[in-house]
Amino acid sequence: MIELGNYNTLKILRETAVGLFLGDEDVDDLLLPTKYVPDDFRIGDDINVFCYLDHEERPIATTLKPLITRNSFGCLRVAEVNDFGAFLDWGLEKHLLVPFREQQTKMIEGESYVVFCYLDEKTFRLVASSRLDKFTQNEEMSLNPKDEVDLLVSRQSELGWNVIINNKYKGLVFESEVFQPIKAGDTLKGYVKKIREDNKVDISLKPIGYMGLEPAANQIFKQLQEAGGHIPIHDKSSPEEIREMFQMSKKVFKKAIGTLYRERKIEIKSDGIYVV
Fold first, then answer.
1. What strand order describes the sheet that includes 266-269?
2. Kind of pairing, strands 96-99 and 72-82?
3. What is the rounded distance in angstroms from the CA atom of residue 75 to the CA atom of residue 70?
4. Distance CA 164, CA 155 (A)
5. Which among 38, 188, 220, 233 counts the fewest CB atoms within 10 Å?
6. Is the domain covering 148-204 a CATH 2.40.50.140 domain?
């Protein structure tokens, strides 16, 4: 059974003037237009293609790689807005529709938004929605503290940055723990910091606890070496100075230089830290 909005491995059945016809045990007339036909193929070969509806609402195959697939999140640019809704550029000839009812805020041509792609059961069309809460759930999570996870930054809030975790769950990175420039649409690695009683998930962009000490210590030592062996920041420096220099919290910084000090790699003096 061909699944619209996803990749399908199909068999090349026959060649015609308009392209290759592909199929499986249920379908034998799915067209791969000539412009997408690979240079090297044989009748009977299997081919991996993306399937969606063309401008005439007919199932069609392509070897182009879309920027989003069915039942997943992505950040896409609005190519056009008309009376039907906003149309997103997802890397294919036909744009992806976001109906007005599925827009969290009114979409603007040229702007980019994080959306979820799904198959509308009423119209049997692939559409997208920026009402992300409809497609994330935290009731049944297979997450544990300190887990490394994949993140998609969805939007900025009063507390920090909302993120989508592993294409399933919603989480938050607090503003006070962001030590790098980020924006909606960024894909990042993160770490589960805390799962609250109400199933809200706090995320860190740096490894948790002892897992984060070695990278932080290595980063500080490398910057020390690049600075000629001395940096005028130490354990009494302000959190703002430490954050600006090392993109980490004062707590992590103090633990990291403590590690370097115990390994006899640095000296901590009143005017900063030195390479031994």
1. 230-231, 272-275, 266-269
2. unpaired
3. 14
4. 10
5. 38
6. yes
CB < 8 Å & 24+ apart, contacts of 43-46: 43/12, 43/13, 43/14, 43/15, 44/11, 44/12, 45/11, 45/12, 46/9, 46/10, 46/11, 46/12
pLDDT by residue (tens digit) across 214-272? 788 888 888 989 999 999 988 888 988 888 888 888 888 888 888 888 888 889 988 99
> Which are the contacts of 180, defined by CB distance < 8 A and separation ≥ 6?
205, 247
Any idea which architecture 74-132 has in CATH? Beta Barrel (2.40)
CA distances in angstroms from 3 to 6, 24, 55, 234, listed in the order given: 6, 11, 18, 58
The domain 7-62 having CATH identifier 3.90.180.10: the answer here is: no
Give this prediction's pTM: 0.78
Q: What is the CATH number of domain 210-275?
A: 1.10.10.10
Q: Where in the chain is the domain with CATH 1.10.10.10?
A: 210-275
Residue type, 203: I
Which amino acid is it at 188?
L
Amino acid, single-letter form, for residue 254:
K
